[in-house]
Design a protein that fits this description.
The protein is built from 8 helices and 6 strands, in the order ααβαββββαβαααα. It is an alpha+beta fold. Strands 2, 3, 4 and 6 form a 4-stranded antiparallel β-sheet that branches. A two-stranded antiparallel sheet has the order 1-5. β2 and β3 form a beta hairpin. α2 packs across α7 and α6 packs across α7. About 25% of the residues lie in helices and about 10% in strands. The protein binds heme C (HEC). The site of heme C has 25 residues, from α3, α6 and α7. Heme C binds next to α3, α6 and α7.
């Protein structure tokens, strides 16, 4: 074999031996500081909140990792309840009545004040939906995809006749939506801060207000922790932080974002049975394996 031939053979061998990405691994090629934030993000993701550290008054679970746990930050078995009302051709998320997510648990102080174990289901809802938590691997990468790429795939009138109508969604302020139901929320950071309040009742400067209780204010004395609750989340110190520093140089949603957006989809082998079914399904046409 010629010298270049040997070099190519070694390169191919090395590529062939590349360790497959395991669920929970970071994207390859991250800088040290990015890896540090990725690791600290996992601690925030798995932090268990209590009423004393800001949980509730209403909540669905006590930690991000409780719902996205299988495997290592993936799918969960919790089911959450959504309520909406469809009136006059418009879908109302019923925010004024506590929607769209109707929390399934209440902290003891709320139970004592109102005698409820969960948020009351809005009487004016016309639909009730149950949602299980999806895997978070790979989903955060959408944060890096520019608006122009999303718009390039738009085909609201199905002009290419493939039966798929791509309709980009816009947030209330006109920014391109990427996350959540119908891709409404523009950035992963906003989406994570929203999950903090909606799922755990934990507020942050980005989402400073607790949700109401079925449309009514929180009774006095129930929420013992001053907002924003997120400041009570235990934050590990950055690896390069000065000795004796508090570690509070980052906010929890920021660290969560640096974790979730750097979780690549695991190696295809992990999802092999699903892949085979997926490859045969019509839904496959809605998904692009690679963005340009
Ligand atoms: C009670 C369970 C529960 C908890 C706790 C929870 N989630 Fe989720 N998560 C869900 C469900 C259900 C969805 C799907 C929501 C939807 O489709 O509207 C979801 C979706 C997501 C997505 C995917 C969004 C997308 O559109 O691609 C991310 C990322 C995510 N959650 C991160 C988090 C983070 C970070 C936390 C902690 C702050 C968290 N979740 C806490 C249940 C939960």
């Amino acid at each position: 074999m010629t010298r270049p031939g040997v070099a190519v053979a070694i390169l191919l061998f090395a590529l062939g031996c590349k360790k497959p990405v395991q669920p929970g691994d970071p994207l390859s090629g991250l800088f040290e500081q990015q890896l540090d934030r990725f690791a600290r993000g996992k601690i925030v993701f798995d932090s268990v909140f209590t009423p004393a550290t800001g949980l509730g008054p209403l909540f669905n679970s006590v930690a991000c990792g409780e719902c996205h746990e299988k495997p290592a930050g993936g799918r969960g078995d919790e089911v959450e309840v959504h309520a909406t009302a469809f009136r006059g051709g418009v879908c109302d998320a019923l925010v004024q009545e506590g929607g769209p997510v109707i929390q399934r648990h209440a902290i003891p102080a709320l139970k004592q004040a109102l005698g409820i174990d969960s948020e009351p289901f809005p009487p004016s809802a016309t639909a009730r939906a149950l949602r299980t938590s999806p895997v978070v691997f790979g989903r955060g990468l959408l944060d890096f995809v520019p608006d122009s790429v999303i718009l390039a795939y738009a085909d609201p009138d199905d002009k290419d006749h493939d039966g798929v109508r791509g309709r980009p969604n816009r947030f209330v302020d006109g920014r391109m939506g990427r996350f959540g139901r119908k891709a409404f929320v523009p950035t992963l950071r906003e989406s994570n801060a929203g999950a903090f309040v909606t799922e755990m009742g934990v507020t942050d400067p980005a989402q400073p207000t607790e949700e109401n209780i079925g449309g009514k204010p929180i009774p006095a004395g129930v929420d013992a922790v001053a907002e924003p609750d997120g400041r009570l989340c235990p934050l590990p110190r950055a690896a390069d932080a000065p000795e004796g520093g508090s570690g509070r140089t980052a906010r929890p949603p920021g660290l969560l974002t640096d974790r979730v957006r750097r979780l690549p989809p695991p190696h295809a082998a992990h999802w092999a049975p699903g892949n085979a079914r997926f490859a045969q399904s019509r839904v496959r046409r809605l998904h692009r394996p690679v963005a340009p």
